[in-house]
Amino acid sequence: MLAVRDVPRGEAAASALRERTGNAAIDVVELDLASLSSVRGAAEELLAIGAEEAPLRAIVANAGLQVLSTAHASEDGYELTFAVNHLGHFLLVRLLQEALVAPARVLAVSSGTHYGTLRQSWGFPAPRWADPHELARPREGSGRVAYATSKLANLYFTYELARRSDPERLAANAFDPGLMPATGLARDASAFQRFMWDRVLPPLRHVVPGISSTAASGAALARLAVDPALHGVSGRYYAITRDTLSSEASYDGARAEELWAVSEELVGLDTAVRSG
Hints:
By secondary structure, the chain is α/β, with parallel strands linked by helices. It has helices at residues 7-21, 36-52, 80-96, 118-121, 132-135, 143-164, 191-200, 214-226, 253-267, 271-274, and strands at residues 2-4, 28-30, 58-61, 104-109, 170-176, 237-239, 242-244.
């Protein structure tokens, strides 16, 4: 099942996957993570599909948005990067969590940008953590910093979900796909940055560790979703294929608990869902 914002492009991707794999049961659900109502609608559709056609066994939260400024707002009035990269995924997982059939898996795609170091973040600005209410507020500021901060939020969510879940029933892990040039992530960057992203960096993946292709990172992500050898493995961080440590800051349990509570408030989860 592909959950997509652009349905025609999603249908084209699903068609290509059906042809390549021979699996006719690849469908598309419309999902705009910048709209909490869209997330709720997609969750309802996925729950219906899971009940009638095929059980839900895994969620791969892999959408990532990077814009130039934190002044942009989502449909619900939240800072756009935080809304798409964290809140939308948070709500989707929480709405589907109890319907997942054990042994289930949730994977959140984070990024090495959360480290905030030159070696591990490729010169990307470091995250700046703050009260989640503040992170959710549109304001003047760097979209690149907001992106790195949202990737740290992905880790807080993953580790908190892992702490709250029985790994035999639901395993939650985070994934760093590496630096993947020639993707749409840099579409709002300058012309020079897009040239470097699309033309200069891709050939370097053969010689520079940490630069990856969509095919290689996609295969590594798929393994985390389906490999039986990973049954019960939860609360881990995988940098492409390596099981490694995320940043020291990412293991701050107090921040993770606060983010969880504020996220429930911001997305309007009712008591029944919170206790599920």
